[in-house]
């Protein structure tokens, strides 16, 4: 056994293979069907047609026949799905036959036409007495949960930390919440290996282009203090350790740990090298720890994410002011407002390979953006881009117009205060106009804060994202439109704060693609579909973590207890 660690290796589980199919059924399935008797040999009266039908049926329904036709059926289905095959519309024009290819439903961006049709009905319902903001969530159907702070502390804390097995250095890459993921997982791995964690290094990402250090985004002193009874955290390597590596951190061995590695892998592969060398690096570290780990390791994740990590003081100060201003602007709805995470920046639109209504100019701009950020990735041999299939599959970023249509259909009227969390929206003047038309009380960080207040954060995308994160965290309704780490962490944080309910609208984008591609749909029908989608989000808001789920998105039951269980441990923890 290697030095002191905090978890034994798990036992391996074997999976029994499925039993082979019975030879009796494999060879004799149609024995009786093909046998003599019943009229085949009575006077030779069976016609040639009957024999042909008999042979066809026998062939098709035998296993070999099915296997022969299966690839053809699969290929045909995929071609139909991607829009390569379709039903053509034929028309006669000036004695010339014109063939128009009909696009599959949901494959084309027709939302502007739908908006023009439905806008009069929205106007007629403006200033309605009932606003969905006040009744969006039926909290009675959800069991109350509370954070289990004391339970986590008792399982993972020490009155005095044992002697460390060495130093763990990790490199966090990506945007704000990918960095957050790496930090929290690093704390969990350091606890597991009984290692001393060096404050994580932030990699300068080619997409995010933010040179911020850990202390620029997070409260470094608070982080170290909050984890003092669980993991020893230092700001930098001690000089004597660094001298052993010629004062160059790059000389410390970099372990290439595979993504989603288990706790057992760290104990069996990383711990021996940590003990032998006294310090190891893991770079990059994003997604290097499996979601499914023992409960005490999950507890350390909870502790680091929900308690130890808080934003740096300059970010907290401005973010709190912005929340206060949103609440004041929403006084007519009891201080309640809607926040939307809108992913319609140029890079996101380009990466999605979806098409909107910009024609050739849009295609040219997207090609340039893809080449600038992902050199050659989208031009590789064999790479096929299917914008229509992407839209039908719900992979296209929702436009501001589509978000507005959805919210108005759900019953949020034009008196609803809306905060939009976003980067630089692609062609903002064009695409934001209809959203502002539907929701005049719309704010962004650029309108909530003054230019002087935002000046220290400009050019630092992670710090700006932290402002967005905080305003979204405290909204009554949060709307996610494209997935990613930002909404996943935010949904988990909201569950942690709001008794286990995410209070989040997570739309069915496949269904939306079909509805937005229905320019003749009636307002009553569209509104009914949207309200059903809101109810579905309400039901899913209190979802528990599944074995394959992330504790950062689903904190119950690892980080939270039911109200009755939490009552026994109810007390505050001071750091």
From TrEMBL:
Q: Does the record bear Transmembrane in its keywords?
A: yes
Q: List, in alphabetical order, the Gene Ontology terms for molecular function in this entry.
A: glycosyltransferase activity
Q: What biological-process GO terms show up in the record? A: fucose metabolic process
Tell me the InterPro entries matching this sequence: FucosylTrfase_pln, GDP-Fuc_O-FucTrfase
Keyword Glycosyltransferase set for record:
yes
Pfam families for the chain: O-FucT (PF10250)
- The record's region (Disordered) falls at 1-28
UniProtKB keywords: Carbohydrate metabolism, Fucose metabolism, Glycosyltransferase, Membrane, Transferase, Transmembrane, Transmembrane helix
Annotated TM spans: 66-87
Q: Which domain of life is it from?
A: Eukaryota
Q: Which family does it belong to?
A: Belongs to the glycosyltransferase GT106 family.
Q: What name appears for this protein in its UniProt entry?
A: O-fucosyltransferase family protein
Tell me the organism's taxonomic lineage: Eukaryota, Viridiplantae, Streptophyta, Embryophyta, Tracheophyta
